[in-house]
Specification:
Helices cover 75% and strands 1% of the residues. The chain is mostly helical and 271 residues long. It has a two-stranded antiparallel ribbon with strand order 1-2. Helix 1 runs parallel beside helix 3 and helix 5 runs antiparallel to helix 6. The longest helix has 60 residues. The two termini are 29 Å apart.
């Protein structure tokens, strides 16, 4: 039984290599000190193992909850990025295929994409703030936060006298065709579609910047980071679940033994 006790503290420390909170996780040395005190007080090995088992399950449960919250934050920003990328792709495919966008082309362009773009952009800003706050205690979030902030910076590009991000924020639902007007979301999108066409079709116009394609590339890079991190969280969660599964049998045996031992102690005291 002694070798089991000696292994348990290191198993617990290995299962949670980051501090969850001061209340739910203690170090290996603290475990060893606790066990030594319990031994000195005459506590049986069975009861010691049972106490450690209960504490370990508490630690793992908290860790699983934390991983779940982290995954939820990642899922939110991933959804925002996907929605933004989809909206930008619609500009390329539905408007960017024409040298000159006309009213008929605009009418075929579903106005709901403007609303989706505005919602996704605003939500991305909020979700990025939450992820950045979480990165103060979860450093592995920092790369994805940096990538998302880069995407947000992309939308600060100036189209005419105004930032594209400003035109997104102030848009109030107008989906009328505005071909040559800057400072409106509709006019910006028509201009971005023209830039996309000229960059990909007019080889003589070297000064054209295809903003939409650049932004989509940056979004894709952020998504790849997010996907990698999501996979990492999945692996962490599986490891915690495996720990519970492997530890459960010995814990149940200890619980039964502890119950029997407690029953014997009660019987001795009543005699």
């Amino acid at each position: 039984m002694t070798h089991i006790i000696n292994r348990i503290p290191s198993s617990i420390a290995h299962s949670s290599n980051r501090q969850v909170s001061n209340d739910t996780n203690i170090s290996k040395s603290e475990w060893e000190d606790l066990i030594d005190r319990m031994k000195a007080d005459g506590v049986s090995l069975t009861m010691i193992v049972l106490a450690i088992y209960v504490k370990a399950m508490d630690n793992v449960s908290v860790r699983i909850l934390l991983i779940t919250h982290e995954t939820d934050k990642l899922s939110s920003v991933m959804s925002d990025l996907l929605s933004l990328s989809t909206s930008l792709s619609k500009i390329q495919s539905q408007l960017g295929a024409k040298k000159e966008v006309i009213q008929e082309d605009w009418d075929k362009f579903d106005g709901k994409h403007l609303k989706e773009m505005q919602n996704s952009y605003n939500k991305l800003i909020e979700d990025c703030k939450k992820l950045k706050e979480a990165s103060t205690t979860q450093p592995d979030f920092k790369p994805i936060v940096t990538a998302i902030e880069g995407v947000i910076d992309d939308f600060d590009s100036k189209i005419g006298d105004f930032k594209f991000s400003e035109d997104i924020k102030k848009w109030q639902g107008d989906i009328s065709f505005q071909k040559d007007q800057r400072g409106t979301l509709q006019g910006d999108i028509v201009w971005l579609a023209k830039q996309f066409y000229e960059k990909n079709h007019d080889t003589n116009d070297k000064g054209v910047v295809d903003y939409v394609s650049i932004w989509i590339q940056d979004i894709n890079a952020a998504e790849q980071l997010g996907q990698g991190m999501s996979q990492q969280k999945t692996v962490e969660l599986q490891a915690q679940m495996q720990f519970i599964s492997s530890f459960s049998t010995s814990g149940q045996e200890s619980a039964r033994a502890g119950k029997e031992e407690l029953s014997v102690m009660v019987q001795h005291q009543t005699r």
